[in-house]
Amino acid sequence: MTEKAGQFPFSRGIYPNMYREQLWTMRQYAGFTSAEDSNRRYHYLLQQGVTGLSIAFDLPTQMGYDSNHSMVEGEVGRVGVPISTIEDMEILLKGIPLGEVSTSMTINATAAIMLAFYSVVAEENGVPPASLRGTVQNDVLKEYISRGTHIFPPEASLRIVTDIFEYCHQIMPQWNTISVSGYHIREAGATAAQELAFTFSNAIAYVDAALKRGLDVDAVGPRISFFFNAQMDFFEEIAKFRAARRLWATIMKEQFGAKNERSMMCRFHVQTAGSSLTAQQIDNNVSRTAFEALAAVFGGAQSIHTNARDEALALPTEKSARLALRTQQLIAHEIGVTDSVDPLGGSWYVEKETDRLEEEAVEIISEVDARGGAVAAIEAGYIQEAIARSAYEFQKNIDSGERIVVGVNRFEKDETEQIELLEIDRESVSAQLDRLETFRKNRDESAAELALSSLTSTAEGNESLMPVIIECVRVHCTLGEISDALRSVFGEYRIA
Question: How far is residue 185's CA from residue 199's CA, in Å, rounded to a whole number?
């Protein structure tokens, strides 16, 4: 092979020496019950060797509802941490060295609000916004495709995404402004080629929106990152990551005219596949996760999260989260795969698979373009229907036994083992509701009302929303109040 790592189109890796020079960031996605409990888990994970935090938010937070909203009873703290106020964020981040730790926040519809909470808390702790490193997912298009935690119609959502691009370019230059996610698309049932194609179709829509705003492609390009899934087809996944780098480099250079090589680099985080985990024989999930994480390493990921053995049943316990992290550390330090820049480069099979996936993804991207681009294809239901067909075929193969899932349709056994699972502490939820009530009582109500009125006026115009959201946070407006102010202008998007 004549191409080298660190050279366009980056098939062999985005850096010349890859892991020989620096390992990937080891993240463990965490957040549950309360800000206090989640903060304890973050400190525990940092002590165990995590090199980057990854925050999971509960569904009310993702959907723009405060923890005391009538619609969210029973959901507070269930699948992530509840964050309704800047006080919640202060507790969540207490004792975390924000100037040193890279933080990833998996948040989309309310990404601007969480970013505002995070940056104001950091500033109050003496860490200026320009020093902050991390990522806000901010990929709302995939919510319409695969997850459903959107709030506003697509055009309004794209405006907010672009506001974050602009704000971070000016104020938080080290922050990754978007993590375009193929992970959830794959979890919904997409094939590897569809994961690539629909992810990059969404990314093209975001770059288009940024250019229409007047931003330069080489201003926003270097801060775009990606988030991919690692499934169980080992060599296909490795080839997928290689194809992803080649595809994105070509799109940015040829379609958008990027000049800065950093704009062409497909930097990505990988999470092992939640959909591959089984509730049966959960110890098998440790092996599944190890193979998937190894594929991410062979594929050249910049950061990795490894799922825990018990996640098909509940949020991970401290013990299982530690074991998941140890899986990454074993790969990094004991088996020798980091000694080579691109261990599988030149493999006939891997190169053939890389070419195949690139060609299939290009065909699908062309079809999306022919339908008017990602937003039009989403609104017409084309992408969702294509994924649903793939998911059906996959499940049909499992049901027929053509695809073997160990412990599920082959090699089953009676489950008699007692499994320790993480319990949600409902008293912590009550404390969260009490704190929210006290927070609102103790603020300057007139200042909060004035800031929310200003936000509504700004939303009705064309100016960036980020500075006004920051001001709302400073005067102690809540997540729900800020979201409602935007709802009053943009409305809510309902899938027909």
Answer: 8
How does pLDDT run along the chain (496 residues), one tens digit per residue?
578 999 999 999 999 999 999 999 999 999 989 999 999 999 999 999 999 999 999 999 999 999 999 999 999 999 999 999 999 999 999 999 999 999 999 999 999 999 999 999 999 999 999 999 999 999 999 999 999 999 999 999 999 999 999 999 999 999 999 999 999 999 999 999 999 999 999 999 999 999 999 999 999 999 999 999 999 999 999 999 999 999 999 999 999 999 999 999 999 999 999 999 999 999 999 999 999 999 999 999 999 999 999 999 998 999 999 999 999 999 999 999 999 999 999 999 999 999 999 999 999 999 999 999 999 999 999 999 999 999 999 999 999 999 999 999 999 987 767 788 887 777 888 999 999 999 999 999 999 999 999 999 999 999 999 999 999 999 999 999 999 999 999 999 987 6
In contact, 120 and 86? CB cutoff 8 Å: yes
pTM, to two decimals = 0.96
**The token pair that represents 463 in the structure block:** 């100016």
- What string of DSSP letters covers 138-164? ---HHIIIII----S-HHHHHHHHHHH
CA 490 to CA 155: how far, in whole Å?
Answer: 9
d(CA 217, CA 264): 10
Query: Which one of 3.20.20.240, 3.40.50.720, 3.40.50.150, 3.40.50.300 gives the CATH number of domain 20-400?
Result: 3.20.20.240
Other CB atoms closer than 10 Å to residue 59's CB: what's the count? 17
